[in-house]
Design brief:
Structural class of chain A: mainly alpha
Order of helices and strands of chain B: EHEEHEEHHHEHEHEEHEEEEEEEEE
Order of helices and strands of chain A: EHHHHHHHHHHHHHHHH
Strand order of the largest sheet of chain B: 5-6-7-3-8-9
Largest sheet of chain B: 6 strands, mixed
Radius of gyration of chain B: 27 Å
Largest sheet of chain A: none
Helix content of chain B: 10-25%
Oligomer: heterodimer
Shape of chain A: globular
Number of strands of chain B: 18
Number of helices of chain A: 16
Strand content of chain B: 25-35%
Distance between the termini of chain B: 50 Å
Structural class of chain B: alpha/beta
Strand content of chain A: under 5%
Number of strands of chain A: 1
Shape of chain B: globular
Chain lengths: ~280, ~425
Amino acid sequence: MQPVPHIVIEKKKGLASFSLKEFWQYKDLLYFMVLRDITVIYKQSVLGFAWALINPVFSMLIFSVVFGKLAAVPSDGIPYPIFSYAALIPWTYFSNTLSASGTSLISNSSVFTKVYFPRLIIPLTPVLSKLADFAISFVILIILMFYYGYYPTFKLFILPLLIIIMMVATAGLGFWLSALAIQYRDVKFGITFAVPLLMYAAPVVFPASLILNKFGHKAYLVYGLYPMTGVIEGFRSAVVYNKAIPWELIGISAFGACILFIIGFIVFRKLENRFADVA
Amino acid sequence: MSESAIKVENISKAYRIGLKEQRHDTLGATMAAWVKSPFQNFKRLKSLSNFNNHDDKDIFWALRNIDFQVSKGEVLGIIGKNGAGKSTLLKILSRITEPTTGKIEIYGRVASLLEVGTGFNPELTGRENVYLNGTILGMKKKEIDDKFDEIIDFSGVEKFLDTAVKRYSSGMKVRLAFAVAAHLDPEILVIDEVLAVGDAEFQSKCLGKMQDLSGKHGRTVLFVSHNMAAVKSLCTKAIVLENGKFVHEGSTDTAVDYYLRMNQHSGYVGTYNKQIDEGSGIASIALTDKFNESKTEFGFDEPVTIHIKVKIDEKDLNSHLGFRVVDINETVIFTSEIKISSFVKTKGLHEFEVKLPVRFLVPNKFKLTFGLHVPNKLMIDYLEECLYFEIVETGSDLHQYAGNDYGCVFVNCNWGIV
């Protein structure tokens, strides 16, 4: 017999304490929610997981023509297809996850208004499930690397760190936006509107060195607070031999990601106990 | 009283309800309102979660100062009309929403079944949904692994385990979902009206499973239902809520009695009154229960008495007084009448009392029509469908067929073996 827990239900005052132990008890639920997302997403489609490639590949092709050839945007001496594709892999993850996570409470309202479980699981699910698409999109990167003669180096070992920064930042924003969206549906429309703009704010079609050259070192460091800056520049440096790892930028982005995560977490926890009433 | 499983202290819950929108008559006012609307929307959305000003007009108290205790192993029925706050109470107990004031202490893990098949995904197979739904309800993967065969056995859908649930019939879906729920093993189970789904056979299977849970395994169960028969057969104790307030606590029988006496179905009419200045006519009619109290809902085994006051003139002493019972489907159940002169010989106001047979009408809604007449000659007074009442299922022999048409009346047939 397991010990009988003692639960007290009352109106929470201030910032409720978070029980990691309770969260851990629901890890199987998180697992099956992630599994559900991955299983369901390409059900009843002909191309299936190929769709995970189509989005970044076509963006890469268009960017290579428009920005690489026509506008001749500098690319730190890296062939533009690799330059943009290495950025598009984390970017596609970030934008897809943000849209899914930000609206996750709305789309799962029928579940959490009927059963209790740690609500954080809901926006956290896309953060994990979108890693499947993310992993698949590496296939094209490997092909591009061999085509352009950029053979893998030890720098690839930095990828896990970058992936963690990317997930922490996305989760933080996801918590924050989902908690607001359940009460103010404007957020849902705002996300659709803001995500493409955020892409041009991130160094996806241009290198971060452009900021450094135009606005100086201080602006460059401030720019690094946008977590995707460090992640994207780090991704680029990991796959090509002729670009040094921008440690400084990655460090600042990791800091930015942590700030986002903490804010998102606090906002979510503060609003959490009224989700069922305002949904 | 053994140790308590749930202690509810002074629980209240407020909700915001929408106030009537303001209307504007002029174009200018409409445009000004349109410009202001984002600010007003913001205020309204923000106020959804703000209850500091308890006197606001649009605050609705779904529950007010609820106190009760449930002992370990007890099966508590929670009854009340729609909107009485039953579901809100269950939502608070299952931690879906938090109370506005008050405190609840619970000793044990709680599993709540406010709905069957929460989180079922139509694209996933039966097997995948069992795991997803099971973990949503609070089970661990290992627990589901262990009970998987039992669950599938109980559901009876083993042939379609690897078929997407969207291809299931609705009955199959419910079976599978309930099978998962039935294998939860918490100390405290909270159930809302889930028996309202599925066919009669399946419902009785579910009831059996719940009886097992409470009886054999000593689980504490909180059960909300409109089905008085289910409450009576399952619960050891019951509480009655009315408009968010706690109005009665006691044994299941007294609670069900209390519930039936709460006369608030506005569609039902239990009394009729009319001023008669001259001539003959029916002055008043009332339906009463065994306590001589007027009401409109009766248990199937409760005596129903009709009191009829008739004013009779000398010349009308030869008339007949009668009534007809018609059910809600317009089926005429029976007609009964008497000759006035065989009861009274003088003019004046007389009160008649009619006792309907007990255990006769099946649970349904009925309409009463009264008439005072000289057969085939003269209609003195005719009150078409002037009273409405309901017979409620409180555990008749045929209660497991509730919802099916098994006739209009209960009949005691002489069965024997040869």
